[in-house]
Automatic annotation (TrEMBL):
Name of protein: Phytase
Keywords for the protein's UniProt record, in alphabetical order: Signal
InterPro entries: 6-blade_b-propeller_TolB-like, B-propeller_Phytase
Domain BPP: 15-346
Cited Gene3D superfamilies: TolB, C-terminal domain
Length: 351
């Protein structure tokens, strides 16, 4: 059964169990609509798959980060409905639609597998591996352990590219971009086509997000800021477009989610990890400048030390008619939020 959220007011805070300790959550923190079933090890990053035939049957795919971890699929009630084959420390995950394999379109979830220096590709919604056992990444490099991943689908030809980050790496080529390919017999492969990405050296780069419609990549250079690049490798533009949020975070800036109100407008939500809040920026930029990102709001949530998040504006029915925001929380769970409750706080902050 799904976990029920129970708030216990204690001196202005709510006490939430996280393993062997209690973590303080602000009393005004937004309460989740649903908390998922608990995973065995350590949740890290979620991604939302929209069912094209019935959006109310969409699923959340999340990582359980451990040597004996895996990908888990949850329904919109937070129930576990499928586990992948065992994976060796899967870190982040992202989803794309319509990878062409053997003449057929396949929706895919792609995750990093840190202990094998690989990415893994799974078909959706059945969560079955289609990668011949894994695809090596950062080959020839001393620093290889993959962490972050985001998928870009190019509008002109619908090719899908994976942007992969690692635990450590050099500035200028910290991120590698791979084109997902048809490896034959219904299996997927990948080939590296780009190396880019500035890095401050302060901590690491894990959280990566792609905006398909705007053709951009956003990633968190932790404890330094949020960086923006062109997503299309064919543009041959490795120049940094923007650097923002440098003074907005208590410590780590982490998971990134992009809420799309239209093809070009919406919000960028970034985890203020140690503050247990999300910082909100305008997706379209500000003052006519698509690379200017003022802080719009800070949303306190019930999540503890959130690493990863995702969001959709699609009507999923039931409690999520204007979309769903999902975020990882310590305590081995993911929290689902009705988008309306987040929008109300953003609107209030604008007044």
């Amino acid at each position: 059964m799904k976990t029920k959220y129970i708030a216990i007011a204690v001196l202005g805070f709510a006490a939430v169990s996280c393993g062997s300790k209690l973590a303080a959550v602000r009393k005004d923190a937004l309460k989740p609509t649903i908390i998922t079933q608990t995973l065995p090890h350590d949740t890290d990053d979620p991604s939302i798959w929209i069912n094209p035939n019935d959006a109310s049957k969409s699923i959340i795919v999340g990582t359980d980060k451990d040597t004996d971890g895996g990908l888990y699929a949850f329904d919109l009630e937070g129930e576990i409905i499928k586990k992948s084959i065992p994976l060796q420390r899967p870190n982040n995950v992202d989803i794309a639609y319509g990878l062409v394999l053997n003449g057929k379109k396949v929706d895919v979830a792609v995750t990093t597998e840190r202990e094998t220096n690989s990415i893994r590709i799974f078909s959706l919604p059945d969560l079955e591996p289609i990668d011949n056992g894994g695809i090596p990444v950062f080959e020839g490099e001393e620093l290889r352990a993959p962490m972050g991943i985001a998928l870009y689908t190019r509008a002109s030809d619908h090719k899908i590219f994976a942007v992969v980050g690692r635990k450590e790496g050099p500035s200028g080529s910290y991120l590698w971009q791979y084109e997902l390919t048809d490896a034959g017999n219904g299996k997927a492969g990948a080939k590296v086509i780009r190396k880019f990405g500035n890095y401050s050296g302060k901590k690491e780069i894990e959280a990566i997000a792609v905006d398909n419609e705007l053709g951009t990549i956003l990633y968190c250079d932790e404890q330094f800021g949020i960086r923006k690049y062109v997503a299309d490798p064919a543009a041959k533009n490795d120049n940094e477009l923007a650097l923002f949020g440098q003074k907005d975070f208590k410590a780590d800036n982490e998971g990134i989610a992009i809420y799309k109100k239209s093809a070009t407008e919406g919000y960028i939500l970034v985890s203020n990890q140690q503050a247990n809040t999300f910082m909100v920026y305008p997706r379209e930029g500000a003052n006519g400048n698509p690379n200017e990102y003022p802080l719009l709001a800070e949303i306190p949530t019930s999540t503890i030390e959130c690493d990863g998040a995702d969001v959709t504006s699609v009507n999923l029915g039931g409690q999520f008619q204007n979309g769903l925001f999902v975020a990882m929380s310590n305590g081995m769970t993911f929290h689902y939020y009705n988008w309306d409750s987040i929008q109300q706080l953003i609107d209030a902050a604008k007044k």
